[in-house]
Design a protein that fits this description.
about 350 residues; 2 domains
Length: about 350
């Protein structure tokens, strides 16, 4: 049996949706707490495959990791999760983030004052999910006397949909702590490709925010995305993680900053990459990332190495590892971390 009592699976778009559904069913049978579906690029929305997974599973929780607060009206977002909650009551989790540039601007919704937008958005969404009638006139969010219209079931019963904020920067971390303390959010979904040392700083700022809101860190759930490139072939596992790191370091500056990757390595990567990066550019740039950096910010290698590495994030404050298996053998990773193994 694995030493992990709480563990979850993270899916992006590496596999087709039928295969992802199969992994969700397998993870449930192996005692995984949740499946989280990514929605980071213009590749796959999270809510549709998660709803399909809900139809063929019985108890595993299903989280968006993460939807953004720029491209969906807050009332539509609340109605979406209310609808999914009717499909699988108490099983959906709304992981929500502030998205990233340059993609946000490229689709016509540039990031402006992400902290203020997140405060307004989650405040209104939580009130709607609590079945309140809401009027709010903010800088970004404007609603006038709206309420979720529940046709089937108790129209006054709050929807059991936790809101977890995908915070990466420390100002967003403090805001998350404050919103959780004020019962306007339920936790922080900590990002991946950061070292365990990053967590110590993140928790410090979560605590500052929680204190501001009159709460404590202990009341804030802190699942964390962790890249897990597990393979019986160690070199293959490390190279797959190295390739992903190269893509993210070249395209998402907020993760670049949080990872604390040495500047000289970042400079070399940026010399090779444009946006979007070509396969040839990625292959050249990834050679600049040494093994020790790969294993510092991902859990990569053979199964025993991955088990030991993930424990470092737990010891640094992660309450539930949300594992993104890069190698093709997803079931190997599920089996290795299974509480039922």
């Amino acid at each position: 049996m694995s030493e992990y009592s709480r563990v979850a699976l993270y899916l992006q778009d590496k596999h087709d949706i039928p295969k992802s559904i199969e992994f969700a069913k397998y993870a449930e049978n192996k005692g995984f707490e949740a499946v989280w579906q990514a929605e980071s690029r213009l590749a796959r929305v999270a809510t549709i495959p998660l709803s399909a997974m809900a139809a063929v599973t019985k108890k595993i929780k299903l989280g968006t990791g993460v939807v953004n607060n720029l491209t969906r009206n807050v009332a539509l977002m609340a109605a979406t999760f209310s609808t999914m909650d009717q499909m699988a009551p108490g099983r959906f989790i709304c992981g929500i983030g502030a998205w990233w540039e340059p993609l946000a601007s490229k689709v016509g919704t540039p990031r402006k004052k992400p902290l203020k937008l997140m405060r307004e958005y989650t405040t209104v969404m939580k009130k709607l999910l609590n079945m309140e009638t809401v009027t709010f006139d903010g800088e970004f969010v404007h609603v006038d006397g709206i309420r979720l219209d529940i046709v089937h079931g108790d129209p006054n019963k709050p929807r059991e949909v936790p809101i977890l904020i995908g915070a990466t920067g420390m100002k967003m971390m403090e805001l998350t702590g404050e919103l959780c303390a004020r019962k306007l959010a339920d936790g922080a979904l900590l990002n991946y490709m950061v070292s365990p040392d990053y967590n110590h700083t993140a928790l410090k700022h979560l605590k500052i925010g929680a204190k501001k809101g009159g709460g404590s860190l202990e009341d804030i759930d802190r699942p964390q995305l962790i890249v897990c490139s597990m393979d019986l072939d160690r070199e293959k596992a490390l190279n797959e993680a190295r390739e992903l790191l190269t893509q993210y370091m070249g395209q998402q500056p907020h993760l670049m900053k949080a990872s604390k990757m040495p500047q000289d390595i970042l400079d070399k990567i940026h010399e090779e990459l444009t946006w979007p990066a070509t396969r040839e550019q990625i292959n050249k740039a990834m050679k600049h990332i040494p093994d020790e950096i790969v294993q510092k910010i991902t859990a990569s290698g053979k199964p025993n190495e991955c088990l030991e590495q993930v424990n470092q994030w737990i010891e640094s404050g992660c309450t539930c590892p949300v594992l993104y298996q890069l190698s093709d053998d997803v079931k190997l990773m599920i089996d290795t971390f299974s509480p039922n193994h």
